Amino acid sequence: MDARVLLERDGALARVTLSHPGRLNALTVSMWQELAAVFGQLAEDRDVRCVVIGGEGGDFAAGADISEFPQARGDAAAVQHYHRRVIAPALAAVGDCPHPVIAQIEGVCVGGGLEIAAQCDLRIAGESARFGAPIGKLGFPMAPDEMRGLIALAGRAATLAILLEGRVFGAREAQSLGLLTRVVPDGEVAEEVRRTAERIMQGAPLAARLNKRMSRRLLDPAPLTQAEYDDFFSYADSRDHREGVRAFLAGATPVFTGD
């Protein structure tokens, strides 16, 4: 069975698919590495305006592939390498992607799957999707670089409830915990994601990238420096800014280029 991370392009939309047939898309070491490489590639592609990540065959991802653990996590040094040098770079690549990233969540989204979804900007799930991180039942905690994303998304209290109880829960509860942007009927997930991506791609890509970058920076309580303000407001001289104002005043549809 092939375990892969697939990349497809549809114009300015990039689609990343987690694929591990027969294993609910459980993530192997090679898949984590491919995920980092794919998002690294997308980060450098200025023609991309939106990225959708989902799973193949009706599930998002059932966490890490535990069958690899005896080799990949055989001792303390291997455990640290696995979490800090395999998983953490992949999650960072998703979170650091300059383009808006939407998680298309169907079926199982637990463990590493939930960690990936937490790094996305929007998360749209079907009503029957299931969430959780029952890793305590495997005898280990969530690694710091993995927990950081969940805390940033849902807060410390919700993160502890997820980890300490180890329950697998439904989409509505996940939404109430702040894990999801929207919950839609199962048969409408793909269409809702498509409509969301189209709305994003109708906006100015430069503005989207700046919003992503600044929203992350503002999590740091340190005051913004004058250099950071200057860098942010440099968009004022951009073509997209001029085009947006021009089109609004003319009652026309703007044509954004990302410049």
Give short descriptive properties of this protein.
259 residues, alpha/beta, six-stranded mixed beta sheet, 11 helices, 10 strands, globular
Layout of strands and helices, then pairs:
Elements: E1 4-10, E2 13-19, H1 29-43, E3 50-55, E4 61-62, H2 69-72, H3 76-96, E5 101-105, E6 108-110, H4 112-118, E7 122-126, E8 130-132, H5 144-154, H6 156-165, E9 168-170, H7 171-176, E10 182-184, H8 189-202, H9 205-217, H10 226-233, H11 239-250
Parallel strand pairs: 2-3, 3-5, 4-6, 5-7, 6-8, 7-10
Antiparallel strand pairs: 1-2, 8-9
Helix pairs in contact: 1-3, 3-4, 4-5, 5-6
Outline of the structure:
The chain has 259 residues and is of the alpha/beta class.
Alpha-carbon distance between the termini?
Answer: 43 Å
Structural class, from secondary structure content?
Answer: alpha/beta
Strand content bin: 15-25%
Count of alpha/pi helices? 11
Average pLDDT score: 96
Outline the biggest β-sheet: 6 strands, mixed
Q: How helix-rich are the residues, as a percent range?
A: 40-55%
| Rg over alpha carbons | 19 Å
The total of beta strands comes to: 10
| Major beta sheet, strand line-up | 1-2-3-5-7-10
**General shape:** globular
**Poorly predicted sequence stretches spanning 5 or more consecutive residues:** none
Order of helices and strands: EEHEEHHEEHEEHHEHEHHHH
